[in-house]
């Protein structure tokens, strides 16, 4: 039995954090969407645990930052602790900079929270329809759109959904990616892992030394919610279907713990590590784990997906509303795939370094070292900051112009392609084209980042000089930049920055307008509309 057809502008496949973020961002642009998710409800598992600084900046723009923080752990949980067992002393620890407290580089602070706390807030952030228990079982791409066959798994009915574009955020095992025949690069499946969610009173070992993760020789323990609850992550044992999970968790807690946990849920999953060979196939675009799956160490996976959505949604809006050429969507892969490659390398390195720390500990104990001794970690105290990776992304594409607004961007695939800083712990704010616009206070409580939204923003100490004489065809706002900020942004009092809707600098004029049409020419170049009649 077939139901009536549905027509939308963007069909979002996948109701996790990335799909839900895209739904909220596109609604801000007035884009009609439908989200479909094959599971009947939001994830009941904690899964992703870290909302980093950049994701919180995106959520601040959506009005969600305060609500996310209210349900999250306080900043002192922004730390990783290493112990032999949960009830032993730390033999090492590392802070998550940008989560353990405020940083001057951002108006927000990241948080440790659970995905099942985050997703309901994201779902409530938009009114666009969302169907749960709805699975895409067929796809047909056409010249002017995509037709998806959607199965209602409870009722057994099927409907056709026609969309101008399809955004696939359907996870590491993406059915859409498989249908497209898109391959992946990278290590692939790294480990089979089990998450056990349980209740137990472990406060006597952890209350005085809070952490978001306790890494032990017998798996990792994660506090789930400020009011209680725990998860244990460990390699999936043989005979998992017959395992005594309460007994396994009790043994992992260590001898003498005298704790019998109440197991609530068990989930088996695969830790994947790959990047899709393509992020775009015509009118179908991949985002989040469908485009790149990251090992969990360092909390990079979900956050990289949120950044995908932030990069892509304004480009979809421009293509749909006619103020951007379809070629603008090509810059999505050009900008985001190199970042995914770099992030994957960092996530794999995080995993290797975690194993190194545990190996060093075993060597110390074998050599007769005191159980209360500490080891020197194979990374710096600021390692888990990763601010160069989180805030230091540099985009190089046709949607980024050089200083003066006229420098040709490097070609895709060149050595200057989009990247995140290789020195991932180091971040130097800069207003160079391609970089995230630095956080500067424009007024008490109002950051430069708060000036960006569903429009391009021209930041300048001299708004009168730069204000367009007639309304351009692109959404544009002119914002005054305090004279005290001009120098740090590389501007004279007559200069200006053109900032894209995703907060990245698209062009910079350091010393005034080079010609009357410079601003319009830059907007046309960035959006791929050169040669059109305005």
From the N-terminal CA to the C-terminal CA, the straight-line distance is 48 Å
The low-confidence parts are 411-416
Q: Structural class of the helix and strand makeup?
A: alpha+beta
Overall pLDDT score = 90
Radius of gyration: 24 Å
Shape: globular
Number of strands: 24
Question: Percent of residues in helical segments?
Answer: 25-40%
| Number of H- or I-type helical stretches | 13
Main beta-sheet annotation: 8 strands, mixed
What proportion of the residues form beta strands (DSSP E)? 25-35%
Task: Characterise the protein shown here.
With 534 residues, the protein is an alpha+beta fold. The chain contains 13 helices and 24 strands. It has helices at residues 17-28, 53-61, 65-70, 115-123, 175-180, 203-206, 245-253, 301-321, 330-366, 387-390, 463-466, 483-486, 518-527; strands at residues 6-13, 33-37, 50-51, 79-83, 90-95, 111-112, 130-132, 134-142, 145-152, 158-168, 184-199, 213-216, 219-225, 228-235, 262-276, 280-281, 284-286, 292-293, 441-443, 446-447, 456-460, 476-480, 496-499, 505-509. A hairpin with a 2-residue loop joins β8 (134-142) and β9. α1 (17-28) runs parallel beside α4 and α1 (17-28) packs parallel to α8 (301-321). The chain is globular, with a radius of gyration of 24 Å. Mean pLDDT is 90; it is low at 411-416.
